[in-house]
Amino acid sequence: MASRERAAVPITRPPPDKRTFMKRLLLTFSIVCTALTAWADRIGEWNVYPAYWVATQNVTVGSRVYAVMSDNLVCYDTDDQSVRTYDSMHDLNDTHITHLAYSQEAKRLIVVYEDCNIDLLSL
Question: Of the residues 49, 53, 86, 103, which has the maximum number of CB atoms within 10 A of its CB?
Fold first, then answer.
């Protein structure tokens, strides 16, 4: 008996249908777009990285302690133990704080700068 040899037929997968292909393409595109927007900085916005090292002045107002640390203003709330930073991009009008005081009558924090500018912060 002669053995018949079968020719090896390559196994091929059927091409994916259009719907599956579009789903994969859309998923890949959305992942790439999400990653790119997460890495990109917003245009026109600045990131502030102030240094907080040594406290040179402290003012206590109720449960909050305001401190000048490396020419930057920091507020520590003793009730909820939160820390808030003040910077010239959002809250202050200048840099290099030299003096800090609190006015009981006006209920404002007085911030004096190296170039003699003064900020009065409502608390």
Answer: 86
